[in-house]
Design brief:
The complex is a heterotrimer of chains A (about 525), B (about 290) and C (about 290).
Chain A lengths: L18 H5 L4 H29 L10 H36 L7 H20 L25 H29 L12 H32 L13 H18 L2 H15 L6 H14 L15 H13 L1 H15 L8 H24 L1 H7 L3 H31 L5 H27 L14 H30 L36
Helix pairs in contact in A: 2-3, 2-4, 2-16, 3-4, 3-5, 3-14, 4-5, 5-6, 6-7, 6-8, 6-9, 8-11, 8-12, 8-14, 9-11, 11-12, 12-14, 12-15, 14-15, 15-16
Chain B lengths: L15 H20 L5 H26 L5 H40 L6 H7 L27 H24 L3 H32 L7 H33 L9 H26 L1
Helix pairs in contact in B: 1-2, 3-7, 3-8, 5-6, 5-8, 6-7, 7-8
Chain C lengths: L1 H9 L4 H12 L11 H34 L15 H29 L7 E8 L2 E6 L4 E5 L5 H4 L17 E4 L3 E8 L4 E5 L4 E5 L5 E6 L4 E7 L11 E7 L1 H17 L19 H5 L1
The chains are: A mainly alpha (about 525), B mainly alpha (about 290), C alpha+beta (about 290).
Bound molecules: heme-A (2 copies), dinuclear copper ion and copper (II) ion (CU).
């Protein structure tokens, strides 16, 4: 597919200096850096909101915030984390790594690449500004269910339009990834030779362009229902509030895989490196990823078991959802087999990767339990669900991002990070996060609903524990920020190879790599 | 470096994306403010920035293209970009078609007591009969006349289908370097496109004034105007794109081999065409 | 306990040990209640089955992994093997999980079919969610009333000590008989709510403009508490549900006294939800501002 024998860029340009370098950037590394920095800031903002939630939930009774503000925090926390922290972080990795991994000079559409990024800070300015508006920010949950969300005050159109902007950004980013992967590979880099990170991102990009427009359509209908008198989600006019849920989850379920497939890619790069053994079952990993992506389109109803779907619908969504455990299991088993009879060392990226495998799988197990429709009638909208999705999102997606940061930072900056601090960060995180989220399983099973600012007394102990975990986990992330800054500024010089067991084109470049990754395409055998 | 395909062109830096972001932000903030009852000025200002941006950005791209900086591989990137952009548009429309399908297949019959929803009907909406078109059990927006398929919409179908023919004819002209056929074909397409929009506007006026069919007319009015409205916006956009391509063709741009902009516009046009067929069948006819 | 097992494997000495002793000391509820209806027992059994299957798979997978982490490490002089593919094992670990899933799906399907079987009820109660209270209509008896949180604001604002049933107490509980198939219809007047009493085994959304049906056959008398389970605005956390299940005898008495009270106060200030016309009418657009 790749037509080029050699690629080449204009040489007359050193990057512009100062702020303009970033504003007008077309270089994939600059844009990748922008994405990563942006997402880290958003992670801190979203995390602070989570800490407000956990502070209020430390004890029964209302202590710090009003219920309305609590709901705003829940809603904003999720929107910021999902669209501001995790998704842009993966796009940042894609920008940095895909061209280096496939032997390309840059992303296929560099100017559009810049636009995809710069929409985001503006979108989040719009979103976060609603907190200061009359009536406050959105408080109907990140799922934006009508009719409740239509009760939002002045914030409403700002929220909807900021979601549109995030959608535009994601779609353009995804198109860029697809064009790059399909068109910019070095000669000899056939599809089945691509590193798994590239594969998972290719599939993720398809998910993005398939579902972000559907979300855009859904929220547009919310907008017209509120301002132009349409009746999409109003039974009196022949519509149905539940219809929005179908639209939202048609987007929302693939969305959660958008946040985990690239994580699978990252883990599939790291484990072989530190096991010093090739990834086990490369092709089955590719097929498994594709199957997960395919299945993700037909399972959305599992978020809606309690809305009163016809029995046949409930059965269909239950079976389809359960099947996802199979390809996901294949991935887990392949990772374990990669470690099997390897020669392992446990640097920080590997520690995070191992924690990912265990904790993500625990999150997957609770997901499977949720998939069992009759049992979900008990779990739905409780902290059991909250525990489930934080295990897959925090100890899944976020842990993979931490692993990725430690793994590629030496390549990006040319400096080794401080291994000792890295390990401390890891242990604090892994202990904190489990104190934070594991008790939430029990809270949910014992009957604590989610999205409440105050709760009955029997939930007090575990909530206190969970809040303590939140503060341990949250503050240990400051250590991460410190480590990153320190690595950029100073640190032992990293070799090109960085890790003894690392394989792939990005390790053939210098550390830090040249401004235009591969000005001459490498030959891949 | 000299080699068969030349070099992959990577622009070194560009002001346009950040201008575009500022423009988009201003537009969106302005629109939100307008929806909250504010003035339209901010939004207009944003749109102005976006228009300037479009001239600047596309101007830069056209210049680069005309000065031969884009090799085949760059061209291929544009193609992939356009394919998947159109695919995302397909999914955007799918959301609204899905809505129409859901309303007709589920929500309206349910309100009328179908399936497991007998009690919904009996207890909440006993007087409602499930029919299509409908403005729902509360007669939202008052009684209205549904849109007939075989008047203006049928004419519009013919117009759009012929425009698909004329644009293909123009493409043949371009590929055989018959410039007048290219220009004539494009001009005809642009004309048909705007004619379609004009007739659609007439249809809307008629609906609002004579038929009491509005966005307020329950689920029928909602789906009708949402689907045809977004389609109409896409036709307008497509016509403008084709107009730009026409102007470029008149200026002598494009060669037999190298004319991605033309093809992109044509694909987009065919996409708009196909959506219309879906609309004609599912919104007007069935 | 899943927690205990996995925790023990992960961090022999750490935080979760603490959690365990804490839970033992405070007699905390860690698990789903077994409930008091046929459905809830079935769901509880299902829950325990899938939980233990997951635990077993976890033990297998993580056990293998930790074995490998322990023995196949460079510091122990492990030399990497070179195998990286095997179609046979890929097929095995596709088929075996598939079989496990089928094993889970069978009881799940049975329970679900049972749960959705609302036919032949003995009595029917309509539950309507409002921002932020519930109303109950006994369709066969013509009784209707609102049910609102009765926890005083001082307790919520930490100005008074909290009761045992803090946030789980209402002025007028729903009273039902044991041993009868009760059909519960849920709907809402403004936004979506969800009616949930864990001991009954299910929750069901209350959706404006639509009616959902579910059922419960309560086995023993008692007071069962639950909460609204769908975010419905600022006081979502403050619309609890209390179900008082009485013997059929006592239930009859309760019905009679309610009816008597109603005739006595007819025409007076008892607002009672006038539920003859359709909720869902207030179009959200208007409700919004
Ligand atoms: C990264 C994000 C992510 C991921 C990967 C998943 C993965 C899965 N999720 Fe999760 N989910 C969310 C994010 C995610 N989810 C979020 C955010 C919500 C809540 C949204 C909201 O309401 O706000 C949610 C909610 C949610 C629900 C709705 C709960 C409710 O509201 O009632 C359900 C129900 O089925 C579900 C199921 C699953 C399943 C079956 C998987 C599967 O993919 C898991 C598969 C993995 C495994 C099973 C483990 C590994 C497998 C093996 C070791 C093989 C052998 C195993 C067996 C045979 C059991 N999820
Ligand atoms: C990727 C997504 C993601 C991530 C990473 C997280 C991370 C966290 N989440 Fe959450 N969360 C969601 C997605 C995510 N979450 C979603 C989708 C919901 C559902 C929303 C809804 O119901 O609508 C939710 C809901 C949710 C709830 C339930 C709220 C409710 O139902 O009312 C809770 C409660 O504990 C919670 C907690 C946390 C915590 C403690 C973290 C922690 O991991 C956060 C840790 C990070 C930090 C704490 C940042 C570190 C910063 C500092 C220490 C301060 C320093 C500051 C500066 C230097 C500026 N989240
Ligand atoms: Cu009612 Cu939540
Ligand atoms: Cu899902």
């Amino acid at each position: 597919m790749s037509t080029a024998t050699h690629v080449h860029v204009e040489h007359h340009d050193a990057p512009p200096r100062g702020i303009w370098r970033w504003l007008s950037a077309t270089n994939h590394k600059d844009i990748g850096t922008l994405y990563l920095v942006f997402s880290l800031i958003m992670f801190l903002i979203g995390g602070c909101m989570a800490l407000i939630i956990r502070a209020e939930l430390f004890q029964p009774g209302l202590q710090f915030v009003t219920p309305q503000f609590f709901n705003q925090m829940t809603t904003m926390h999720a929107l910021v984390m999902v669209f501001g922290a995790v998704m842009p972080a993966f796009t940042g990795l894609a920008n940095w790594l895909i061209p280096m991994m496939i032997g390309a000079p840059d992303m296929a559409l560099p100017r559009m690449n810049n636009w995809s990024f710069w929409i985001l800070p503006f979108a989040f300015t719009l979103l976060l500004s609603t907190l200061f508006m009359q009536g406050g920010g959105p408080a109907g949950g990140w799922t934006l269910y009508p009719p409740l969300v239509l009760q939002t005050g002045n914030a409403f159109p700002f929220v909807i339009l900021s979601v549109h902007m995030m959608g535009i950004s994601s779609i353009m980013g995804a198109i860029n990834v697809i064009a790059t992967i399909l068109n910019m590979r070095a000669p000899g880099m056939t599809l089945m030779k691509m590193p798994l990170f590239v594969w998972t991102w290719l599939i993720t990009a398809y998910l993005l362009i398939a579902v972000m427009p559907v979300l855009a359509g859904g929220v547009t209908m919310l907008l017209t229902d509120k301002f132009f008198g349409t009746s999409f989600f109003n039974a009196a006019g022949g519509g149905d509030p539940v219809m929005f849920q179908h639209i939202f989850w048609f987007f929302g379920h693939p969305e959660v895989y958008i946040m985990i497939l690239p994580a699978f890619g990252v883990i599939s790069m790291i484990i072989p490196t530190f096991a010093r053994k090739p990834l086990f079952g490369y092709s089955s990993m590719v097929y498994a990823t594709a199957s997960i992506a395919f299945l993700s389109f037909i399972v959305w109803g599992h978020h809606m078991f309690t809305v009163g779907m016809p029995l046949a619908g409930e059965l269909f969504f239950m079976y389809a959802t359960m099947i996802i455990a199979v390809p996901t299991g294949v991935k887990v088993f392949n990772w374990v087999s990669t470690m099997w009879k390897g020669s392992m060392t446990f640097e920080t990226p590997m520690l995070f990767a191992i924690a990912f495998v265990i904790l993500f799988t625990i999150g997957g197990f609770s997901g499977l339990m949720l998939a069992i429709a009759p049992a979900d009638f008990q779990y739905q909208d409780t902290y059991f669900v909250v525990a489930h999705f934080h295990y897959v999102l925090v100890t899944g997606a976020v842990f993979s991002l931490m692993a990725a940061a430690y793994y590629w930072l030496p390549k990006w900056t040319g400096h080794m990070y401080d291994e000792k601090l890295g390990k401390i960060h890891f242990w604090l995180s892994v202990i904190g996060v489990n104190i934070l989220f594991f008790p939430q399983h029990f809270l949910g099973l014992a009957g604590m609903p989610r999205r409440i600012p105050d709760y009955a007394l029997q939930f007090a102990e575990f909530n206190a524990l969970s809040s303590i975990g939140a503060y341990i986990y949250g503050f240990s992330q400051l250590l991460f920020v410190y480590i990153v800054i320190k690595t950029i500024r100073s640190g032992e010089k990293a070799t090109d190879q960085v890790w003894e067991g690392a394989r792939g084109l990005e390790w053939t470049l210098s550390s830090p790599p040249p401004y235009h990754s591969f000005t001459t395409a490498p030959e891949v055998h | 470096m000299a080699q068969a395909h030349g070099a992959y062109y990577v622009p070194h830096s560009s002001p346009w994306p950040i201008v575009a972001s500022v423009g988009l932000f201003t537009t969106m903030a302005g629109l939100a403010n307008f929806l909250n009852g504010g003035a339209l000025t901010t939004m207009m200002f944003g749109v102005a920035i976006l228009i300037i941006m479009l001239f600047g950005w596309f101007g830069a791209v056209i210049n680069e293209s005309e000065s031969g900086l884009y090799n085949e591989q760059v061209d291929q990137s544009f193609r992939w970009g356009m394919y998947w952009f159109i695919f995302s548009e397909v999914m955007f429309f799918a959301a609204f078609f899905g809505t129409l399908f859901y309303a007709r297949q589920y929500s309206v019959p349910w309100l009328g007591g179908a399936g497991h929803r007998l009690l919904t009907h009996e207890m909440l909406w006993p007087d409602f009969r499930s029919v299509w078109p409908t403005n729902g059990p509360s007669d939202v927006g008052g009684s209205f006349k549904p849109m007939e398929a075989w008047g203006l919409p049928a004419i519009n179908t013919i117009i759009l289908l012929s425009s698909g023919v004329t644009v293909t004819w123009a493409h043949w002209g371009l590929k055989e370097n018959k410039r007048s056929q290219l220009i004539l074909g494009l001009a005809a397409t642009v004309f048909l496109g705007f004619l379609f929009v004009f007739l659609q506007a007439k249809e809307y006026t008629h609906a609002y004034e004579a038929m009491n069919l509005t966005l307020n007319s329950g689920i029928y009015g909602s789906t009708f105007f949402m689907l045809t409205g977004f389609h109409g916006m896409h036709v307008t956009l497509g016509s403008i794109i084709l107009l730009v391509v026409l102007l470029r063709a008149i200026r002598g741009h494009f060669t037999e081999e190298h004319h991605f902009a033309f093809e992109a516009a044509a694909w987009y046009w065919h996409f708009v065409d196909v959506v219309w067929l879906g609309l004609f069948i599912f919104v007007y006819w069935m | 306990m899943l927690a205990n097992l996995l925790a023990r494997m992960r961090y022999p000495a750490l935080g979760l040990g603490l959690l365990w002793s804490l839970s033992a000391a405070a007699d905390l509820k860690l698990n789903m209640p077994e409930g008091v209806t046929t459905i809830s027992h079935q769901i509880y059994d299902l829950h325990m089955t899938i939980l233990w299957i997951c635990v077993a798979i976890g033990v297998g997978v993580f056990g293998t992994m930790f074995y490998s982490i322990y023995y196949h490490r460079k510091s122990k002089g492990a030399v990497p093997a070179h195998f990286h593919e095997s179609t046979t094992v890929e097929i095995v670990w596709t088929v075996v999980p598939m079989l496990i899933l089928i094993f889970m799906a069978v009881p799940a399907t049975r329970t679900l079919i049972n749960l959705e079987d609302v036919s032949k009820p003995d009595l029917t109660i309509k539950v309507t969610g409002y921002q932020w209270k519930w109303s109950y209509d006994y369709l066969d008896e013509g009784i209707s009333f609102f049910s609102t949180l009765s926890t005083p604001a001082e307790q919520i604002n930490n100005l008074a000590p909290k009761d045992k049933d803090y946030l789980l107490e209402v002025d007028n509980p729903l009273v039902v008989p044991v041993g009868k198939k009760i059909r519960i219809l849920t709907t809402a007047a403004d936004v979506i709510h969800s009616w949930w009493v864990p001991s009954l085994g299910w929750k069901r959304d209350a959706i404006p403009g639509f009616i959902n049906e579910s059922w419960a056959l309560i086995e023993k008398p008692g007071v069962y508490r639950g909460q609204c389970a769908e975010l419905c605005g600022k006081d979502h956390g403050y619309m609890p549900i209390v179900v008082v299940a009485k013997t059929q005898e006592e239930y009859r008495q309760w019905v009679e006294s309610k009816k008597a009270a109603k005739t006595a106060s007819l025409g007076s200030d008892n607002p009672g939800p006038a539920m003859t016309n359709a909720p869902g009418q207030p179009a959200p657009v208007t409700a919004a501002q």
